[in-house]
Amino acid sequence: MVTKRLTIMKRLLLSLFIITFFINAGSAQNKKAEKDSLAQVKFEKSLAAINDKDFVIIPEAYGIELVPISDNTVFLSYEKEYVFLQGQVVAGNAHTNRLTVSDYSQTTDKKGNIRSTMQVRGNLINAKIEISLRKGGGKADVIITPTRGDARRFTGEVVPRSESNYFKRTGVI
Fold first, then answer.
1. 1: number of Cβ within 10 Å
2. What does pTM read for this prediction?
């Protein structure tokens, strides 16, 4: 009688374990699907901002080593007809630089990543800016290659200008 109860208890515990395992596996799949769909929404929102030419990228990390940064006074913004660069990390100077875009192109690779390239010209900076938006999120890799000086690299999220909390100084050059 005692062995029969132990056998029933073992079967019951084993069944409970199996049910719990499958519930957790299903929950993990739902979380992954939710995470993937959120990343796709961010990508589409970022792409729409780039296509509207009305976005801000605040660097989260810069340089080849990707040194972390958190400063809303350092940014790249595209405001309809002008690109603004502000901050030493982005512009290489302490000014708010207004640049005119003279050439703009956008391509999509086989994986769905978007690459925007533009030539910009201003009082202190003439450069080529490359923005690579990776499929599956709103993060972009940016390379600014000035005609004089070293290239500047940073990574940040592409955000519509209306939703960004960047701080543009007065006295635009």
1. 5
2. 0.82
